[in-house]
Amino acid sequence: MAEPKESPLMEKIVSLCKRRGFIYQSSEIYGGINGFWDYGPLGAELKRNVKELWWNTMTRQREDVVGLDATIIMSPQIWKASGHVDTFADLMVECPLTNRRFRADQIEPQSGTAYFFETAMEASVEIEIIRETLANAEAGGQTENMLRSWPSIHADKAKAKSLIEKSCLSSRDLEEIKERYRRTYPEHDSRHRGSFSRPFAVLIQSGKNPDSAYKRAEEFYRKQGLLGVLFLGPARAMEIRDSQEFNPENGVKLTEPRPFNLMFKTHYGPVESDENIAYLRPETAQAIFAQFKNVLDSSRVKVPFGIAQIGKAFRNEVTPRNFTFRSREFEQMELEFFIKPDEVIEAIHGAVATLEAQDHTSKMPDPQPNWGWQAWHRYWVEERVRFYEGIGLSRQTLGFHIQTAEELAHYARACTDILFKFPFSKRDEKGELKGEELEGIAARSDFDLSQHARFSGKPMGVFDEELRAAWGKLPKEKQDVLWRRYYENRKKYLIKTAKPDETPEQIEKQATDDANGLAKGQYIPHVIEPSAGADRLVLALLTNAYSETTTTDDKGKSETSVMLKFHPRVAPIKVGVMPLLKNKPDLVKKATEVRDLLRPWMNAFYDDGGSIGRRYARQDEIGTPFCVTIDFDTLGEKQELLNTVTIRHRDDGKQERLPIGELLNWLLARIR
Known about the structure:
Distance between the termini: 41 Å
Strand content: 15-25%
Shape: flat
CATH architecture of the largest domain: 2-Layer Sandwich
CATH superfamily of the largest domain: Bira Bifunctional Protein, Domain 2
Structural class: alpha+beta
Strand order of the largest sheet: 3-15-16-22-19-18-17
Number of strands: 29
CATH class of the largest domain: Alpha Beta
Number of helices: 21
Largest sheet: 7 strands, mixed
Number of domains: 4
Radius of gyration: 34 Å
Helix content: 25-40%
């Protein structure tokens, strides 16, 4: 089914984000800039929480992952090696009427009747041609035949003369128009001087007036410079079904697709020239590959291990859309996890572990030394799903897409996309939301390190003493089998990425040298890459948390309240601290003491404005999971409740009393 053009739920979420300070349109006071968004006070806290949870989970809670924070601008050779300079492009189409551009693969299919116009003529120029035609026709006695040679006239001599008399242009004016068109449009038909031969087509949906096709065409030809438009014959009509060749906004036939490179280009240094071109990075991964050897040599890590990075990336998207989901500036959270090739695993352990077929509800075992790329890939898919569950996105809100061979990048062995069911997601045949990509977990083979080794001339392989020792103990037959398999894989890569001046003999030699390295304990690691978008995850959390409740009072008046049911781990504000009354100094003093007790450990918000019910509602709307109220019992009105506070739970409104001395640990246990 087609993607819905608008979502009432998304409109509410976008409105809430601006009203409560989560997300603003960038440069809004200047009309905004498409594809760029700013995070307000609450949005900044929410996004920071997401990134810190990811970082803690992926690095600090593991022994086998370290971190990196690389620059946005790097050597342009990095992007040449990765293929971004030559191939990082989307196919783009353009509307010839509005000049708006679209990604070719995101056009909503259209059906209806298409009207094709081959050419049009300037009305005033045609009058000049009629004048000339009449003169020639009268001289030769062929007036009627000559007039009928002009498809747009089909008139007799008297009507033609009438057209000329109605013209307010002088002969000089007409001559100037004719000359202008000869200079501007050399492609004009030599017979029909003043005609414009560029074809135009427009799709009119069933039930709509076909005359609108002529109005669109007239608008198009006027845009080309025709002052008055006359069509040379009727438009050709054709029935069209589910075509992506027409603009869904106005029906105009789009241009042929052409590649559009997505990288932002800039220059470094005081002079702009081809020698100092640079690019804003379109992904964070390549910096990890470029620094692989430095990290390996300086961090006392051994394969398998990972390098994680969070950082900005930039892509000049043709059509940014769906709020922050597809932006031109965004933040990535990526891990490159380096593993041993299967041939190395088999040489050391005798065989590569095989795992029973599992679905995405099965728990993976702990990593084992004999795991190959398939086991590691499945492991990281499951690890990432567990992370999402831990911040409030249940498996029911997620989907999975296993990329087909046609969808995979040429270097990838597998890729599983974790999807979230956004309101704007496409629907399947049953009308169920299919979901949009939150994260992709790809098995990237050894492509990236190999590319940087070739382009930089620096080795990117590793030495493994365990492999060297094990290889010498293998039977010759086993060595030959593993050597041949590794050789074929390397040769396949080298052929696909061969430089223009590389010969088959050079490729054979390089593949042979690589395979011979196994006996010396040398190989190039393979990579499993979990790559997530921080902005997409923030949007998923906002969407998942959004909840409305409508209540009706005794008088029949209905009121709708909004609540964001964030998981306490990601909530921007963890606790609201409130004195029951702000005009009671003792209550205010005790409330500020409680706030100051909590602030070193969490984001605590003090609020004393309005009724306590209104304050609760404000905190519900921004997703605060707990509110702490200091009342007269806290001060000892009931002696047994001295120095206790009321804790209100956001989701169900339940309340409980707790001693102030236990409050910090109680909250920490629920927000960490």
